[in-house]
Amino acid sequence: MSASSASPPEAVDYIAPKRRWLRWLEPTALLGPGGLWLVAFLVAPVGLILLLSLVPNIKPDNFSRIAQIGFNPANYLRVLDPIYLLVIWRSLLLAFNGALFCLLLGFPVAYWIALYVPKRWQNIVLLAFVLPLWTSSLLRTYAWITILRPTGVLNGFLSAVGLPTVQLLNSYPAMLIGVTYSFLPYMVLVLYASLEKLDRRLLEAAADLGANAFQTFWKVTVPQTLPGIAAGSLLVFITSLGDFINPDLLGGTSGLTVARLIQNQFLGATRNWGFGSALSMVLIMGVAISIALLLKYGDRSAADV
């Protein structure tokens, strides 16, 4: 065997480790900025919230004495107090009712756009529904205050037609109106993406077999759009659960939700960051469970809208 025949294996042994190193370098360079962003603005803040949630009665002025105060689950045990469980229940109920009303209002709209509006006009109609999202949520909520206050637009109209006035501001219905209005466009977009893929041949087959409109809707349309319904409902539920603008401005003192309670713990007079962090972790866990359900049962393509 000559020396020339032994040289190729040595060249291969030298090049292969370098290529393996290059294979790791390329994805690391591409994913590195995104990974650093996630660590800096997601993992690190959640880790800090988890740390503070284990420190009882931690306030801004004794933040440097965390180690001396010690760690224990007192803040999480406080969350189990019936008063705070009632606040959490009220928040879950508001988010659930908001998702339900958005579904009831958004499904006919999405159905009309997907099946009856001509293709060339669908994007324009969808844009009309998305336009409110381009304005500040704070301005939209103040607009509802103008409408719902005792001397507002609604009561002015009711008085003009001879009907008794209503007191909606600073009440649960006002919060529900605000939440439904704020998150209805998300539901319409998700449902539209699901209804656009509806197999219309099955609708025609159901009609040929003698099914009426309700039977066709219930046995053909709903099963095909069920993943989109689940995705839209969970999306609205998650965003409503963390909303504090509508409960704060439209609910008044009767609209205390878990999001408002967290805001009060961090920015209010009590400044109990430990308890606020424990409430935040409970809210994060609730949202994480909802997202897990969304990924498992929802229409992923619709959720990407």
Describe what you observe in this structure.
The protein has 305 residues and is mainly alpha-helical. The protein is built from 14 helices and no strands. It has helices at 3-53, 66-69, 74-79, 82-115, 119-130, 137-148, 153-160, 172-195, 200-208, 213-241, 245-250, 258-267, 273-297, 300-303. It is globular, with a radius of gyration of 27 Å. The chain starts with a helix and ends with a helix. 28% of the residues are buried. Residues 1-6 have low confidence and may be disordered.
Summarize the structure.
This protein has helices spanning 3-53, 66-69, 74-79, 82-115, 119-130, 137-148, 153-160, 172-195, 200-208, 213-241, 245-250, 258-267, 273-297, 300-303. With 305 residues, the protein is mainly alpha-helical. Helix 8 packs across helix 10 (213-241) and helix 12 (258-267) packs antiparallel against helix 13.
What tags apply to this protein structure?
305 residues, mainly alpha, 14 helices, 77% helix, globular, disordered N terminus
Helical proportion, percent range: over 70%
Query: SSE string, helix = H, strand = E?
Result: HHHHHHHHHHHHHH
Mean pLDDT: 84
- Name the poorly predicted regions: 1-6
Large-scale geometry:
globular
Distance between the termini: 65 Å
Number of DSSP strand runs = 0
Biggest β-sheet: count, sense, barrel? Answer: none
- Rg calc: 27 Å
- Report strand %: under 5%
